Each structure stands twice: as structure tokens, then as C-alpha cells.
Automatic annotation (TrEMBL):
<keyword id="KW-0732">Signal</keyword>
<dbReference type="GO" id="GO:0042626">
    <property type="term" value="F:ATPase-coupled transmembrane transporter activity"/>
</dbReference>
<feature type="region of interest" description="Disordered">
    <location>
        <begin position="43"/>
        <end position="62"/>
    </location>
</feature>
<dbReference type="InterPro" id="IPR015168">
    <property type="entry name" value="SsuA/THI5"/>
</dbReference>
<keyword id="KW-0813">Transport</keyword>
<dbReference type="InterPro" id="IPR010067">
    <property type="entry name" value="ABC_SsuA_sub-bd"/>
</dbReference>
<dbReference type="InterPro" id="IPR001638">
    <property type="entry name" value="Solute-binding_3/MltF_N"/>
</dbReference>
<comment type="similarity">
    <text>Belongs to the bacterial solute-binding protein SsuA/TauA family.</text>
</comment>
<feature type="domain" description="Solute-binding protein family 3/N-terminal">
    <location>
        <begin position="69"/>
        <end position="285"/>
    </location>
</feature>
<feature type="signal peptide">
    <location>
        <begin position="1"/>
        <end position="21"/>
    </location>
</feature>
<protein>
    <recommendedName>
        <fullName>Putative aliphatic sulfonates-binding protein</fullName>
    </recommendedName>
</protein>
<dbReference type="GO" id="GO:0042597">
    <property type="term" value="C:periplasmic space"/>
</dbReference>
<dbReference type="Pfam" id="PF09084">
    <property type="entry name" value="NMT1"/>
</dbReference>
<comment type="function">
    <text>Part of a binding-protein-dependent transport system for aliphatic sulfonates. Putative binding protein.</text>
</comment>
<dbReference type="GO" id="GO:0016020">
    <property type="term" value="C:membrane"/>
</dbReference>
Length: 359
């Protein structure tokens, strides 16, 4: 009887232990499953909230194996970046660093800056007007190099038979230019040097291609132009250059979106290296370069060759002289109410990338 009672007690204890073990396992499994679902839900929510239209996490480095998207913008149609795009050098170079290029083109700096603010431009270049405006407005980019001092970048052209002979003669005249660009800055500076202001002339806002059409149609007394349009009109004897009687710097700056530069400094350096490669190739192969630019701009190759002979593109850090010129321009633009806030240009310059690229 004692054995029977002991046996029954033993069986009862084993049953209780098995029951407890089963409950523990079931609870653990339910907890793990619930935790897994919660983690998956949080990750899915984060991914959904942090992805842009292309599906890449916005504001985060691409995961291993997922190429980094690099948004490169060409500002105008006459720059070594056009060569790099045509030859595929940037695409090839970035592919080696697990990155892929997305190209875009803009007619001038102001619309490019709008896209930069919205996160659609990572690397590009700007004339002095757009660059200074962007610095003044504290837009999210930094100056990473100098690609042209711009001594002969801008000119005022007038019809070849125009009686306008001096800058002073522009008073009361209709002048075409792309507002907010380097050409706009140039006009303000030469007017001021001759005792005039913007209020003394009538400005018509025209992008460069539209300016060419308006000038040919005789709708402008003068046009603040850049190459290749200046050389095109002068060579065809449709225009003459108005002598400004002073040297005006109009530096062109290479730029990078701040967030992109912080997260991918190696790609910024590679970008500058490949730009330099394209620049060197252009210098060594002017005929082929002219053919590429002619295809892009629809301007005859012989005109493009003349422009290349006169141009002085480069890639370097900002020099003290050019920095001083940019600051002087910023001060003049503030004085003329072109800017709403003062700009300290040197504060936006970071030469570390170009210094590394040129080693």
C-alpha cells in the first residue's frame, strides 16, 4: 500500500513538472514571437519613414552591398563634367566604390540651388552669384574647390552697330541677363564702378539660351553674356564687347552638399580626382572636346575651339586673392540689396577634399 501511494505521488510530481515545463516553453515562444513581430514592425516603420522615392534610406549611409546614389548636376553645357559624363569616367570610378551616379542638368545656379535644398543635388559647381547667395542664405552646401577665377567669364555685348560705347551709355537701356547668376553680379559691379546702379537700367531676366534668341531678334540693347555665346556673336559679327575698363573676378566654385560630404568624404575626393582627369583630357584633346561640346550645345566646333583656347579652367584650393574677391562681391551685393543677409564667404570653404584629391 505504501509502495502504491509512493508510486502515485511520484507520477503526480512528474506530471506537474512536465506541465510547468510545457507552459514555460509556450510562454517563452509567445514572448519571442511577440518581440520579433514588434522588432519587425519598428524596423518596417523606420524604413518606410526614412526612405526616399527611390527606396534608399534618406539621411543614412547605404547598407553593405547597396550602392550609394550620387546626384551630380551639370550647371550649363560647357564644363569638363560634360566630358566625364560622355566618357563614363565618373560612372566607372564610383562603381568601384559601390556608388552609382544620377545625372541632372541645369541652365544656371538658382534652380540648381533649389534642387540642392530638396536633396536632389550632392555634387556640382556654381558661379559667384549663386554661390554667394547660397552662403548668405546658409544653404546646406560647402565650397570644396575653385575651378575658374572667372576673369574673362562675363562680358556685356551690344549689337555691332549699336551707339553704346561705354558702360555709362547703358543708363536707361534694356539689358538681358540671368538674374541671380554670375552675370547679374558682374553687371552690378561694373555699373557701380561707373557710378550707376540696377535702378538706372531696365533688366530682363533671361536664361542664356533665351538671351541668345532675344539678342538675335533685336529685343535687347545689351546682353550680359558668357561663352560660348559671346564668342559666337562676336565671331559672326553680330555683336561687339563693351569694355568694362576694369578686371572683374567671377570665380566658379565646386560644391558638395554638407550631409553628403560628411557621410561620403571618399566619394567627394574621387569626384574631384575624376573632374581633374576630365580637365586634363580636355586640355590634351581640344578637337575631340570641341566635338563633344558642339554636340551638347549645338554651337559650331570652330567657335568651341576658340572658346577653349581662351578659357582658363583649373582645379585648386581657394587662393587668398580669390577669397578676397568673393568677399568684396558679397559686400557689394549686400549694399545693392541683392542679398538680404551678410555673407562670410570663407566660412563656407573647405579645402580638405581638393587638397587630398590633388596629392
Amino acid at each position: 500500500m505504501r509502495m502504491k501511494n509512493g508510486y502515485l505521488a511520484f507520477i503526480a510530481i512528474v506530471a506537474v513538472l512536465l506541465l510547468l515545463a510545457g507552459c514555460g516553453t509556450e510562454n517563452d515562444n509567445q514572448t519571442a514571437a511577440a518581440g520579433g513581430k514588434e522588432t519587425a514592425s519598428v524596423e518596417a516603420g523606420a524604413n518606410a519613414a526614412g526612405k526616399d522615392e527611390g527606396g534608399q534610406a534618406e539621411g543614412q549611409a547605404a547598407p553593405a552591398g547597396d550602392p550609394v546614389k550620387v546626384n551630380i548636376a551639370i550647371n550649363g553645357g560647357f564644363n569638363p563634367l560634360v566630358i566625364a559624363q560622355e566618357k563614363g569616367w565618373l560612372d566607372e570610378g564610383f562603381k568601384k566604390l559601390n556608388a552609382e551616379v544620377s545625372w541632372s542638368k541645369f541652365t544656371s545656379g538658382p534652380p540648381l540651388l533649389e534642387s540642392l535644398v530638396s536633396g536632389r543635388v550632392d555634387l556640382s559647381f556654381l558661379g559667384d552669384g549663386a554661390a554667394i547667395t547660397g552662403v548668405s542664405n546658409q544653404l546646406p552646401f560647402e565650397i570644396i574647390g575653385l575651378i575658374n577665377e572667372g576673369k574673362d567669364l562675363n562680358t556685356v555685348i551690344v549689337p555691332v552697330d549699336s551707339p553704346i560705347a561705354t558702360v555709362a551709355d547703358l543708363k536707361g537701356k534694356t539689358i538681358g541677363l540671368a538674374k541671380g547668376t554670375t552675370s547679374h553680379v558682374y553687371l552690378i559691379k561694373i555699373l557701380q564702378a561707373n557710378g550707376l546702379t540696377q535702378q538706372d537700367v531696365k533688366l530682363i531676366n533671361l536664361q542664356f539660351e533665351d538671351g541668345q534668341a532675344a539678342f538675335e531678334a533685336g529685343k535687347l540693347d545689351a546682353w550680359v553674356s558668357i561663352d560660348p555665346y559671346t564668342t559666337l556673336n562676336v565671331t559672326k559679327k553680330k555683336a561687339k564687347i563693351l569694355d568694362a575698363k576694369t578686371v572683374i573676378y567671377a570665380p566658379v566654385s565646386m560644391i558638395a552638399h554638407k550631409e553628403f560630404a560628411q557621410k561620403h568624404p571618399e566619394l567627394v575626393v574621387e569626384y574631384l580626382k575624376l573632374y581633374k582627369q576630365s580637365l586634363d583630357w580636355q586640355t590634351a584633346n581640344p578637337d575631340e572636346a570641341a566635338a563633344i561640346y558642339s554636340e551638347q550645345t549645338k554651337i559650331p566646333e570652330d567657335i568651341i575651339k576658340l572658346v577653349l583656347e581662351r578659357s582658363a579652367p583649373l582645379l585648386s584650393a581657394y587662393t587668398p586673392e580669390v577669397l578676397e574677391s568673393q568677399q568684396a562681391s558679397a559686400d557689394i551685393l549686400l549694399e545693392n540689396k541683392f542679398l538680404k543677409k551678410a555673407a562670410v564667404f570663407k566660412d563656407a570653404v573647405d579645402d580638405t577634399f581638393v587638397t587630398e584629391a590633388l596629392k
